[in-house]
Amino acid sequence: MAATSWEESVKSLKGVILDMCGVLYDAGEDGGSPIPGSVEAVKRLKASDLQLRFCTNETQATREVFVAKLQRMGFDISVCEVFSPAPAAVAVLKERGLRPHLLVYDGVVPEFDSVEKTNPNCVVIGDAAEKFSYQNLNDAFRVLIALEKPVLFSLGRGKYYKEDDGLKLDVGVYMKALEYACDVEAEVIGKPDPMFFQKVLDDMGIQSHQVGFKNKSSANTFI
Amino acid sequence: MAATSWEESVKSLKGVILDMCGVLYDAGEDGGSPIPGSVEAVKRLKASDLQLRFCTNETQATREVFVAKLQRMGFDISVCEVFSPAPAAVAVLKERGLRPHLLVYDGVVPEFDSVEKTNPNCVVIGDAAEKFSYQNLNDAFRVLIALEKPVLFSLGRGKYYKEDDGLKLDVGVYMKALEYACDVEAEVIGKPDPMFFQKVLDDMGIQSHQVGFKNKSSANTFI
């Protein structure tokens, strides 16, 4: 593709997916702060005839809580426009008739309310933070190893992130631990994996060549 | 090599290394029980002109505590004949002037008494069991990631083991987690890695072709 400006590219597109952290807001104390100009940019995109969706690997809060934070920052954004790993996982679980054993942060558990969880036949891990205890990891492992063919979903594959009190190991690290323990490859649901983006495209009803994606490390990326 | 009996092979050898769990004793409640005939077999080997050493991946107790258990079972065995990962790691740390941050079981910490541990420039993990907490893993990770070239030692690469209350994840699983987090390959000290066996050979002053090795899955294995 010949080099084109962001505005010119947008004209030929049917939809845009915006990453959130680093694009709309910067993480930090008190939930972070909006990046200058981003509230106005979202407004302009909404006024266009482009479809707009947002994606995040946030797995410590429900979308409701997360979106409320963005709204307080001034963003015109609603829950149904936001794609995070947990609801994408719920869709996959239901499609495949899977009942998860959850090892996720308490704040995101309600996203899984509609999923049958008795007699689990797979494991879903998210960034569980303090819940990544020795006991909880053993419990998740025992569910996996008791299955004829272990099925492990990981909500993202991040290695670590920074919080005010220092670096913290992210979900990808615990994914690797369980992969090794069970000789299994996890199915990753979240950026940057194709299965996750496909769910967003499905929702917009468009193809991958018709969408633009912007994250903090790309001025203008097309999937 | 032509097929030979265990006894015939032993005649041409200068030393024997015996694995312990599954060869001398079976694990179980109250520390396990001796395998019938094994106390007598150790006695016969000691009466021969072969050098004899024992090896184990035990990393939850010091050799003193572990050997005392075997002595109570009736084995003629002393601490200096037993090679476990912790003292092998101590030797490697001293050779290379490394100061470890330890993430190991409390019972094995005394093995590292002679090693300088301030201002750590590497991490050593063993089967830390309940000490594999989110906080302790983050702490070990922060030491590694702050190093220009992270150095990680793992006392074994086991995936899991069984205890009375169920399966437990072993050190190898947490090794994989930290490897992924830091883009580093751990140096494994313990069976079945060559560095570990080399320490045993060095102690006997013999070469690998001069030693026989017996573990629970091999009637007669030569390194």
From TrEMBL, chains A, B:
Cellular component per GO, a single term: nucleus
MF annotations from Gene Ontology: inorganic diphosphate phosphatase activity; metal ion binding; phosphatase activity
Keyword Metal-binding: yes
Cofactor: Mg(2+)
Pfam families found in the cross-reference section: Hydrolase_6 (PF13344)
Key word Nucleus present: yes
Subcellular localization: Cytoplasm; Nucleus
General function of this protein: Phosphatase that hydrolyzes imidodiphosphate, 3-phosphohistidine and 6-phospholysine. Has broad substrate specificity and can also hydrolyze inorganic diphosphate, but with lower efficiency.
Family, similarity comment: Belongs to the HAD-like hydrolase superfamily.
Protein name per its UniProtKB record: Phospholysine phosphohistidine inorganic pyrophosphate phosphatase
